[in-house]
Design a protein that fits this description.
- Helix content is about 65%, strand content about 5%.
- A hairpin with a 4-residue loop joins β6 and β7.
- A three-stranded antiparallel β-sheet has the order 1-2-3, covered by helices on one side. It has a three-stranded antiparallel β-sheet with strand order 7-6-8. Strands 4-5 form a two-stranded antiparallel ribbon.
- By secondary structure, it is an all-alpha fold.
- The termini are far apart.
- α19 crosses α31, α23 runs antiparallel to α24 and α42 runs antiparallel to α46.
- It is globular, with a radius of gyration of 41 Å.
Length: about 1650
Amino acid sequence: MSLFEFWRKRKERREVLQRSRGRKLDQSELKRLLGDGGVRAALGDSRVASLLPPVGTEVFRRFTAASLEESQRRYEAKEEERKKRKNNQEAKTVQTKPTNDLREERTLPFFYGDPPPELLNTPLEELDPYYQSDKTFLVLGKGNIIHRFDSGSACLLFSPFNPLRIGAIRVLIHSFFRFFVMLTVLTNCVFMMIEDKPDWNYIMECIFLAVYTLEVIIKVLSRGVCVGKCSFLRDPWNWLDVLVISTMLLSEFVVSVDLSFLTLFPRILKLLPLIPGMKSTMKVLIQSGKRLAGVTVLTVFCLSFFALIGLQLFMGQLKNKCVMWPVNVTDSYHENGTLGFDFYKYINNNSNYYYLPGQLDALLCGNSSASGMCPGGFTCLKTGQNPTYGYTSFDWFGPSLLSMVRLMTHDFWEHLMMLTLRAAGKEYLAVFLLVFFPGCFCLLCLIISAVAMAIGEQEEAAVAKAHLREREFSQIRVALESGDEEQRAASRAALSETEGEKIPKKQHNKVEGPEDGGWCSPCGPAFTDPCLKWTCCGCWLKQRIFSFVMHPMFDLFIVLCLVLNIVFMGMEHYPMSERFESTLATADLVFLFIFLAEMVLRIIALDPYGYFRVGWNIFDCIIISLSFVMMMFELIGFWLTVLRVFRLARWWPAFHKFLKLVWSSVCALRNLTLVLLVLVFLFSVVDTQLFQNNYRDCACRISTDCELPRWHMSDFYHSFLLVCRVLFGEWIETLWDCMQVSNKATCLLFFMTLVVIGKLLVMSLFLTLLLSWVTSDCLYPSQQTERTSLHAAVVQIRRTFRRLLGKENPDPTAADSEDGDRKDGLALDLVTSDQYSSELQALKGETSERLDIESQRVPIAEIQDPLKAEKEMTSDDETKCPEGQPDQQDPDQRGTPEDCCCDGCYRCCPLLDLNKSQSLGRVWSTFRRSCLSIIQHRAFEAFIFLIIVLSCTALVFEDIHLPQRQVLKMVVEIADQVFTFVFLLEMLLKWSALGLKKYFTDAWCWLDFLILDVSLACLIAGLMGSSEWGASIFSLRALMPLRILSRVQGLRVVVHTLVRSFPSLFDVVLVSLMVWFVFCLVGVRLFAGKFHFCFNETSEEYFLAEHVNNKTECFYLIDANFTEIRWKNAKYTFDHMGAGYLSLFVVAGSGSWMDILYSASDATRIEDQPQYEANLKAYLYFVFFIIAVFFNFNFIVGAILHSLQKDKSEGRPLFVTMDQVKFMKALKSRLSRKPQNPAPQGSCRARLFGLVTSLQFEVFMAVVVCLYMVVQMAETEDQSMQVDIIMNWVHFTFFIIILIEFILKIIAFACHYFKSSWNILDFLVLLVYCIGLFLADLFEKYFVSPPVFSLLRLACVARVIHLIPRTRGIRKLAWALLMSLPAIFNISLLFSILTISYSVFGMFNFAYMQRTAGIDDMYNFETFWNSLICLVMTSPSSTWAGLLLPIMDTPPDCDPLMEHPGLMDTSNCGNPMVGIVFFVTFIILSSLLLVHLYIAVLLETFSLKNPGHPSDRDLDMFYNTWRKFDPDASQCIQYSDLSDFCSTLKDPLRIPKPNSIRLIHMDLPLLPGDKVHCKDILLALSTQVFGDSVDVETLKTRLEEKFATNSKVSCEPISSTLQRKQEDVAVTVIQRAFRKRLQQNADGAGQSAGGAEGGGAEGGADV
């Protein structure tokens, strides 16, 4: 099943689950099911029949002393039978399992009915046959919840009939007891959050301990301690109770050690079993974790491998620092000859290092030309500790592995890459781009795919259970319907007799009942009629108001007022003049009174009874009423006006559905959400208890002023924020601080546990939401647009304008149509807004009757099918495009050019239409044919592609250093002119060959035309010497790499897929922007004008609020001639809506959002100096916004998948071309085919062959490789010479081992060795390892650097890949990743071209920015490579906002007259608007491509979930099993052995017993002698498992390779299994009828003989 099929069937699965839950039998059906023997016989041997009690007995029977004796007797009989089997050593029989529907805390199945009320909370006899032989009994609680207890004496004292135990059971299963315990746990959690414990905290702890002890006592009294299956300790959840009490007592009596944190885990986790349904959710999560075990092992292994790569390449290089070189080193000797200057002490002194302003770590450097340089007076030396307290390094395996985890989780990864490139050199960017990033991406894809598959399997399992309940219900229905026909006839007769009596009663009830159903007031008609239904007077006024309110134009007016109100709210900014502020306040009052009037009119028109029955009306009433109250009492309630934005959802279907789906999804996933909340609370409380004192006592280690940093764990609130930050994806910086102040192992364990569990929970929640949203048909735009009352209003306005303009003939039925449109729009609006039909019936009399009739007239818009139109456009594009697929054109028309111009041009200018029969027309036609043949030639396309690549290469050299390189500048200018001329010639050729009509109707040709226009404009500007307007379009030459898109077919497919998804994304993006508008408006009203601060530019320090309190005091210092002081504003603010959107975008898509968060938390009042964490509540604003971003992103990804599903259903390729699909199919066939290595004939070689092909040998070699990896992990940067010698011997020993393996395999396989791809991989590993071990010195001296050969030695780790085919789950995921490589390649290539284009644009526009914030001497836009590195570091998880800060600098933050030596430019200021558009568009496009990358892997994962054919492993299993049943290799087995054979097979081909019915329905051909052929069995099993997608011919060919010894028996089948069964049934029926006939004849003869004897006796008596 593919991913799209899985999603399409999600709605069906949901309906099945809902139907299965709602299945219920009425009392008469239950009575017949439980008491009718015919119904029970019709059920046969089904599962339902086995669970029902015998006919004539009660279902629910009290558990009495006789029941206890009977259960004891059954238990003893079961034990004796088990002992007999054990003594006789008999084969184990199939063990029965408990029925799932009758498990603990499940609802009683529907076919049992409801028990009598007097039997609730009472011990009952067992219903499950599995437990009937055990000593247990049932107790049904409220809601028919099953509770099971042991019938033995609890604690050896209390029997099941003991009143104390019965009372304990009733208390235990009562809902109030569960609520009381939950309330106690919640209260205990509240006390955990209190930082300063009150004096009476000890008393509360004793109360909590008493409650927990009482709970355990009640459970022990009702269940017993440990004896019995249902005892207290047999339930793992009860272990939490034991842990709670034991840890509380332990922490109370052990005073020497603080063990308070040990009591937190079990107490908080007690919440989980108390929440209904949480146990099953936790069970599902644990099972999902088990499924991820293989992926987890693979992830750890791959991360260890990457860590070894980093260890070998960058060991010790992050210690390179810029050290101030001492001046008088040689003159520092004393007179006695002793050295007076300690050089090593000097270079290890931190004060001699070079520090950038605001940085705690010294500036790193390198000794290569591409690494970081030191400023004057400093030299690069390897000394001191590594950055970030020494935790960012590659000096040994531990920090190297931590760095790889950072890269995989995308947390502060750009900082690691920047430090590494600065120390090692920019050339090592290739290691990150080619090894680390793709490897981490693949691991993330595997994890996401595994989680998605686990979710899919869980849903399929739930649906399978629901289908089982559906089948059981249908079986019961069929059995009930197969009753006696006489009873049916009698029931029909009785029904017909009583029908005449019932109908009048119904009619009478209908007349006397209420006018409409649904909600009814609890006060009855006595209150609702006079108070809520206004029908006493003023009917004509009410009807007029009703007609006015329900008119579509009224809704349009309200929507326009809402939009204007939103626009006015968005105009708020800082600073505002008093006049503008009063204007906004007046407008707000006007809109408030408009909405108040709307509410009053709706209440009058609909009555309060009808008005408040609509949810949207209640929402409007609350907002308007509270706003009016706030206005009357002059209270501040700005959040009420913000809520008006959500009123748009009433008329905006997409917005309404988004809000509805958010709410429904949260409700549906409440258990998973509660687990996440419990996890957050648990870790927040635990880290407070663990690290609270450490942060307070050791604050000086992580802070220069010995104050607590912003992120700490000294109180619950900050711990909660820190846990949220970790779940949001940032954990490494807080981990460094924690390891600096506390125990490193404890911090690592805590953070890794939080990261792993939190990431998996968030990922599961995201994917579950995605699966539920994508399948909602009402979520995304459908093929027919949804109409509301606004559509009707717009139609009326358009019609009016057309009449005024005279474009529409007057219609005599205009009035009727208008009225119909009004009512149609009303009906549509009510349906769209979830208003019930009762609103239309609020009025009595003629108006309601007329409305009820006319509101049913719903217009059906005749809309053109967009799918058909899109198909036609796509086909036209494919035929129009000259570059894309020239081979698909008709060969007869390929050399015939189309018309040059359109028909209108020929009509306007007939001279253009040349006669081809004349000389001039003939020459022109011949010329066009020649041009067409030129542009269709492959050499021409190759030449143009080469020119495009060369032109893009020339752009690389146009950096800031080009004016200083005159020769290179001249070459680049000439090349640019040549390239422009070539592209111009290409365009002229295409104009001549294709014609202007076809050329300008193709999007790719338009792209080439626009890029050529830019090149021509730049060329003309250069010739004219105009630099003013030429510089503005010079940067547009960065679009030149986009010409490659039309020349590569894979890129064209990806671009077409992306473009087709834009229409479906449009409405979704608008909804997301509206949600962001709400947060942006709240941010403006909370933080506008509060991010300003007084700053000393000389010392680069902020003034404290004690020194400078506000703007007035700061300007007082400025007026006092303190020129270095400025009143500045932050770059990212909420001063207006535009700045707010930018700030929120930085928060959502950048790692630099902490600066905005800090500014908000320090904000006090407008124009006041910020104070440290003066506004801690501001953190919650950003927490809620990130949660909203989570839903928004899910919404957008769902829209993308909806578009892809649409393309897939239409047969369009997704991300790959047809050639790539064929190539991957061939590769898949090649790799899936296991090489046939015939066993050698010699005994010695045969033994070697068996040795090297055995699983034990593979495992041994994998263990050797893993041990070798462990040894390499022991390498450190400062290891001794002895360790180096030992490591060399280890390398040599490992080389000997793999060499011996190679020799053994060469001897065993001989010439077949190199036929296996695995053997070729082993040989390459051996060759590389040999070069790295023996020829390293030679190559290091002349060719490459030393770390390269250390890296080559790691190639041996590839030997472990052999084990992947042995692991089924990992093999599926790895295979899916391999099959998605073409799509990944195409999307990655598009992303590379996009990055190159943006890099060139950045180099043209931002090359002269001042080096502040994220721009320095290495990472800038001065050259192409530096710009490329900056763009690589620009991703949604990186700190790209630091690169934007210098670009947003304007005077006086920059110098517009600054001169650059040797350059013409005289400014270092940026263009904020260009920079914002540059980074925002790049982040959006790169995120879009990244999402498609993950989707491509997910598609392949779900497509391989059911591959459609058996694998080679399945065929090997089938072949090995077949040999056991067919030792003579006859390829046939007896039909009687078929059941055992299918049951012996392994999954997925296995059909377990009982399988007779399934085998019969497979309709296998039977050969003479009642034999079945192997091919027929395999084909039938494959079709049964994989569906109809099995390729029969391919499967036969693969099977013939396995059964190559003999050919198929050359005879035709004489019958089939289904035909044989039909014959057996027919024979049975005939024999049964014949016996019955014989019996009847015998009975008739006996009766006649008896009658004759009786008659003779009577006659004799008479005589």
